TrEMBL record:
UniProt family annotation: Belongs to the aspartate/ornithine carbamoyltransferase superfamily. ATCase family.
Protein name (Swiss-Prot/TrEMBL): Aspartate carbamoyltransferase
Family annotation (InterPro entries): Asp/Orn_carbamoyltranf_P-bd, Asp/Orn_carbamoylTrfase, Asp/Orn_carbamoylTrfase_sf, Asp_carbamoyltransf, Asp_carbamoyltransf_Asp/Orn-bd
UniProt keyword terms in alphabetical order: Pyrimidine biosynthesis, Transferase
Catalytic activity: carbamoyl phosphate + L-aspartate = N-carbamoyl-L-aspartate + phosphate + H(+)
Residues binding carbamoyl phosphate: R54, T55, R104, H132, Q135, L267, P268
Length: 307
């Protein structure tokens, strides 16, 4: 039963609950018109303390397509945050006006800290370089669409594996399924943090390798998850400039890839996937964008407990 719960960490949902959510997501994709009134009279608040296109718009589109309404801010400076209001007071206040809240915050752990002040379900829409659980739902739903399963795959994650919160959440999520192995492709400075390796991969004895060259491993992959170098999380510009062009996936590199490889990217992209790849049938990232809206529709409906 998901009604009334928060969704802050990818592991807040059991595998059975995830299956239920994906089943509902599939039903919404198939019969969207059957869901256009399920959230009549309900209000979603989107509190975005950091920039976003996909996450905020997909949450808002999801609620509107379910018949509900939307309030919120994308510029915290336009709210009483600018006058020094605490996160807890903001969440408690917005709980009075809304039925469910989606919040993106630059501080890692902000939703864990803030949820006690919230009297309605709180969804983590990304906290610093930590987690992005609804992107993970989007990624899982897309992997299910592309591969029809979650297990027995070789999953390559490429780019900024240090600051990329979607990477951390996806490793956590895919580690819950059997017989997956990970290939972690990054420059030395942008490797997956040790706490993910120790607390997730090593703890569960999940096989993984760390390499620097995508070309050396691309032929082995079933899923390739490309990521952007996260400029906003670097402490100095020079490091960003040195590392920003580390990887560019183009059709030449894809020549050695499997015919049924699924290429995902949480987006936005900068230049790490050449535009020429967009029309390749293995490119799933724009279908992934749409899946993000459908799975957020399913999540909102489940957390609100609407039929
Ligand atoms: N994937 C993602 O989180 O995109 P936005 O930053 O545009 O929301």
């Amino acid at each position: 039963m998901l009604k009334g719960r928060n969704y802050i960490d990818p592991e807040d949902l059991s595998l059975e609950e995830l299956d239920e959510l994906f089943d509902l997501g599939k039903e919404i994709v198939k019969n969207e018109k059957d869901f256009i009134h399920v959230c009549d009279g309900k209000i979603l608040a989107t509190l975005f303390y950091e920039p976003s296109t996909r996450t905020r718009f997909s949450f808002e589109a999801a609620m509107l397509r379910l018949g509900g309404g939307v309030i919120g801010f994308s510029e915290p400076g336009s709210s009483s945050v600018a006058k020094g209001e605490t996160l807890a007071d903001t969440l408690r206040t917005v709980s009075c006006y809304s039925d469910i809240i989606a919040m993106r915050h630059p501080k890692e752990g902000a939703p864990q800290y803030g949820h006690n002040a919230c009297t309605v379900p709180l969804i983590n829409a990304g906290d610093g370089g930590h987690q992005h659980p609804t992107q993970t739902l989007t990624d899982l739903f897309t992997i299910l669409s592309a591969k029809g399963k979650f297990d027995g795959m070789t999953i390559g994650l490429c780019g900024d594996l240090k600051f990329g919160r979607t990477v951390h959440s996806l490793i956590k999520a895919m580690s819950r399924y059997s017989n997956n192995k990970f290939v972690l492709i990054s420059p030395d400075e942008l490797k997956v943090p040790n706490y993910i390796k120790e607390q997730v991969l090593d703890k569960k004895s999940i096989p993984y390798t760390e390499v620097e060259r995508l070309e050396d491993v691309i032929d082995d992959l079933d899923v390739l998850y490309m990521t952007r170098v996260q400029k906003e999380r670097f402490f100095n510009e020079a490091d960003y400039v040195r590392l920003k062009d580390s990887y560019v996936l183009d059709l030449e590199k894809l020549k050695n890839a499997k015919k049924d490889l699924a290429i995902l990217h949480p987006l936005p992209r900068v230049n790490e996937i050449a535009v020429e790849v967009d029309d390749d049938p293995r490119a799933w990232y724009f279908r992934q964008v749409k899946n993000g809206m459908y799975i957020r529709m399913a999540l909102i409906a489940k957390l609100l407990g609407v039929k």
